[in-house]
Amino acid sequence: xxxxxxxxxxxxxxxxxxxxxxxxxxxxxxxxxxxxxxxxxxxxxxxxxxxxxxxxxxxxxxxxxxxxxxxxxxxxxxxxxxxxxxxxxxxxxxxxxxxxxxxxxxxxxxxxxxxxxxxxxxxxxxxxxxxxxxxxxxxxxxxxxxxxxxxxxxxxxxxxxxxxxxxxxxxxxxxxxxxxxxxxxxxxxxxxxxxxxxxxxxxxxxxxxxxxxxxxxxxxxxxxxxxxxxxxxxxxxxxxxxxxxxxxxxxxxxxxxxxxxxxxxxxxxxxxxxxxxxxxxxxxxxxxxxxxxxxxxxxxxxxxxxxxxxxxxxxxxxxxxxxxxxxxxxxxxxxxxxxxxxxxxxxxxxxxxxxxxxxxxxxxxxxxxxxxxxxxxxxxxxxxxxxxxxxxxxxxxxxxxxxxxxxxxxxxxxxxxxxxxxxxxxxxxxxxxxx
Length: 435
Hints:
435 residues, 4-stranded antiparallel sheet, 4-stranded mixed sheet, 15 helices
């Protein structure tokens, strides 16, 4: 690990020195003792209890810890390379400040920031794009975006003056900082915001005379994920083309907070470990317009820790939280643990009745099995169905889909230990069903 980063640093510095002639290029200091210590403290991968949040299970904590260490390695390699490629003094200093701020936080805080939607998506975008900075004069917009994503750490721990940095305005024109739980609803007249980090506040300027303090509070659902009222520019630019995220109206937002607040309380009453799991795995919720009782929700692999959903009655919102948290967990499992030797093999998935790779079948089987477990518990606790719906019939239909997906995986997947554990635990969920 350390040798690979050192080699990348030296190569990047040589490349910049060649382009800059006699210009002296400063080194990006990576505290490798801290990095080695953090990586060495990784827990063992969980071998069981990987499907459901159960009393005494620590699989969520272990998986997040392992993902954090994987993401840190990738983040450092990317930053070291891009630091060497850019000749922009602001961008180079932003990368230095970003790395210094990560060194300054505790291991627990580092695990949280490295497993959220900001850093996971930044790594995915940087890894999937061009290796050279995409802007003339050696500037690098990803340096500005990384500083924005690490704003809480930079504001709390930066030991040097932080350069002003630029991010795109949210779709509404304002700007939200979900991890600080603050925003401004004042629209930028230029489509961008330049941020200045002060000792006690963050100032935002649009470069055309508008200057605001980011101080409007963002609401969270109970003690869990924060609700982000408007999509960010980053999300609009990097959300997969297969997904849509229409703007929610103020009335949609009010309904969303009410529905998901009630869903959080329902989980606390019926399956408290599931709400704890949501709190550990999901950092933010992105509302969509009300779409009636039909499910309208999704998660994105590269935006780990984010759920997109329309408002739904409490029972359905609770099912959404458990289901989509499952997709987030399964994404992490796939990143860390091989499930089978033939994940790219394709089959008609019983979940969507369409041709899908076996990894997608795992995703659907895993998330719907969790929803089946929750629905059984809701019925056992005497929770009423939503009017015009029949929860028992819904449970039977979803159980049939899960059983068919489980059987397909047993037939077609050459299972490895992690895949075997999941399929076995899905079977346990089905065995607990009445009748």
